[in-house]
Amino acid sequence: MTSVAFPRVRTENGVVRGLEIDGLHHFRGIPYAAPPFGPRRFLPPRPAADWDGVRDATAPGPAAPQVAEENPLGAVYAATETGEDCLTLEVWTPDPGRAGLPVVVHIHGGGYIYGAGSLPGYSGKNFARDGVVHVGINYRLGIDGFLYLGEGHDNLGLRDQSAALAWVQRNIAAFGGDPARVTIFGQSGGGVSVLNHLALPASRGAFAGAIAQSGCSMASVDVDEAWRVTRQVARDLGVAPTVAGLSAVGLERTAAASFKALKRYALGLVKGDRRALLLSPFRGVHGTEFLPANPVRSAGAVPGVPLLAGTVRNEAAPLIEGIASVAGPVAPLIRLGLRRTLGMDGPTVRAYRDGPRHVRGLAALVEAGWTDWGFRIPTIRLLEARPEPSWLYEFRWQREGIPPGSGAFHAVDLPFVRDDLETVMALGTPAIAQFGSRPPQELARRVHADFVRFATTGDPGWPRYDRDGRTTMVYDEQSQVVQDAAGAERAAWDGRR
Questions:
Q1: What pTM, to 2 d.p., does this model score?
Q2: CA angle, 432 as apex, 430 and 434 as ends, to 5°?
Q3: Is 315 a catalytic residue?
Q4: Catalytic: 367?
């Protein structure tokens, strides 16, 4: 039988009352900053207000304003309740009465237009089960979080994340955590955020380790490109590309315009616009006081922390499938255009076709090249540039009944990292369509244990990545450590990505 109690913890702003469920403690909807709208819109985050009495922390806070996401697994990975008081976080802890526990801070993905840190698929209960304090955060998204409006009005979503990390430093000891043992982690947009924090002066000293899943170290844009996107968005909204102009637009309308900007940006793929290969127009902006340079250019120039980073084998598979379903008979022409946009010349094609993967067919070739251009190669380039300890993994598991080497899709690793296949598989048919009927529980235990080990000791348990051995953990039904898993494909991109 499940037992429930209501533990209390004092934070810097007041006392919160959470839930104790079967010995684990959960606190939800805790503000780490003031609501960032009204007179605070398009400004850096401000401190949260104090409160009297005891604040209820048994329900999630609202997600940042966003449109509804069409996701077959939306019951566990899509936000439903949104609102202005969105700069909140939640904490899972083994015991707030403990001290010195390792901490992980999760930064959710979603292309910087979707998501929330409180979604069921991001539950931290199994990290707490295994002795780690888990924090999940919200941050501003889309136009309100990532549209560039000049110095001081830039990178607002990243500024929110930095404010959350600062809150953790000041408050996590009250939940049993050690502020000197904080590891940040995230997937997709969250992974990109993690890599950006390696380069952010504002985040320096706020974490001792980092894990980036399916991130891109080259995703940020310069100020000129950021202004181009801003002018396009403002033109679509019929307002001036200024703080005053955008502030006059309601939140529902800017959320809808964020999604429209995403669709418009993706259409650049049809025109051969390489900028569209990373899909979202909402990115970190480097060359600013807040983010001086991207993570690769910052590597070695500023103090760093241990990093565990990796990708899944078929990051771009959902994108290729989406093109096929939308474009119909002209899909082959679009794929051919994508091959040219990616710059996949003869030697590059031969590396995929004649190398160990033996990639065949235009669709498979473009998927492999897009995956590597957008995710795997930028991850490797960052690890090559870093003097600090770094580890690389590649997740290759895929469900049964599909061609080998084709189904380790973007985000397939999410429930494995949390050892929480149960939550996803409870969705039934839509989950079976993506994960098969019996995804391997032992693999989930293995991946999760390696993440916990890294958060606890700073080492996931296999040799570090360097240019000599290029050691890579390959996660699959039978996981193994291999040398230079990227091999010929990596070499084909040398000097070009």
A1: 0.97
A2: 75
A3: yes
A4: no
